[in-house]
């Protein structure tokens, strides 16, 4: 557990004790989703390091302060920390999903109450200085995200009913959930499809129903999430990565040079001002859609299969825009 997570728990323990709720290790463990051992460690830290006069009321079965005037040490926050906090809240609202708006505001409220002195969090004032324009995002159900998170954490099989745009069909699947990835604001589940006996990436927004199953699974040693993500391009990945080589002309080269497009990306400069980008990925469908946005300023050199796919798409495009 990180120190930040422990701080959040300690603040909640203090809030409940101060409110006269007489919390216990059992009740706190249930509410905060941790073990009783973790709560007892937090209690010991409060007593030993923060000087909290915590005692147990046997009749009420919970904790209270023997000195009602006790207060946790002031939480000091710099302007930079407040700005970072604001940015995280704003980004979370836009990229986690609108269903999380109320929990986020609740978190802001609780953290604001812990700040002492003249420091306040004025989110409305900060919004006058910063603008966030997210890409077009697909709505994601908060309960679906939470169910997937639970299945990953507890290593339980997950039943999903999934609509695939490529086939236009809805299918029921049982998967071993491994990882949630947020790519450009959209959520993707990286999982092992038991029925297909293969790794699959599912857009969470297209999961129309899901249920955590009681059966547990053992994580496959052959599946490495870092390797999976490294071989993907954007959200798309496959099995074996291949080398992709794309040449960008002099006009497009400055925009290509200023960004890191992939963990494996390497750029080769040419005397005429053009550049060649080399990378290893299995997400060729995503590469095709990405490279075509540059039109005639980009040319796929390898692999040959990708070059043919792009050429075929160009021929279809020409037919659509042909002058009669």
Give me some keywords for this one.
single chain; 324 residues; alpha+beta; Arc Repressor Mutant, subunit A; SH3 type barrels; 4 domains; 5-stranded antiparallel β-sheet; 11 strands
Compact description:
With 324 residues, the protein is an alpha+beta fold. Helices cover 39% and strands 24% of the residues.
Give the strand line-up of the largest sheet: 6-5-4-3-7
Along the chain, the helix and strand elements come as HHHEEHHHHEEEEEHEHEEHEH
Report the average pLDDT across residues: 84
Oligomer: single chain
* First-residue to last-residue Cα separation: 67 Å
CATH class designation of the largest domain: Alpha Beta
User: What summary fits the major beta sheet?
Assistant: 5 strands, antiparallel
Question: What is the CATH architecture term of the largest domain?
Answer: 2-Layer Sandwich
Rg over alpha carbons: 26 Å
List the helices and strands and how they pair.
Elements: H1 3-18, H2 25-32, H3 36-48, E1 54-57, E2 62-65, H4 79-95, H5 101-114, H6 123-127, H7 142-154, E3 156-164, E4 169-183, E5 186-193, E6 198-203, E7 207-216, H8 225-231, E8 242-248, H9 253-257, E9 266-269, E10 275-281, H10 284-292, E11 298-302, H11 304-321
Helix pairs in contact: 1-3, 2-3
Plain-language structure description:
The chain is an alpha+beta fold and 324 residues long. It has 4 domains: 3-65, Orthogonal Bundle (Arc Repressor Mutant, subunit A), CATH 1.10.10; 79-127, no CATH class; 142-220, SH3 type barrels (Roll), CATH 2.30.30.520; 242-321, Alpha-Beta Plaits. Helices cover 39% and strands 24% of the residues. It has helices spanning 3-18, 25-32, 36-48, 79-95, 101-114, 123-127, 142-154, 225-231, 253-257, 284-292, 304-321; strands at 54-57, 62-65, 156-164, 169-183, 186-193, 198-203, 207-216, 242-248, 266-269, 275-281, 298-302. A 5-stranded antiparallel beta sheet has the order 6-5-4-3-7, covered by helices on one side. The chain has a 4-stranded antiparallel beta sheet with strand order 9-10-8-11. Strand 1 and strand 2 (62-65) form a beta hairpin. Helix 1 (3-18) packs across helix 3 (36-48) and helix 2 (25-32) crosses helix 3. Residues 116-121 have low confidence and may be disordered.
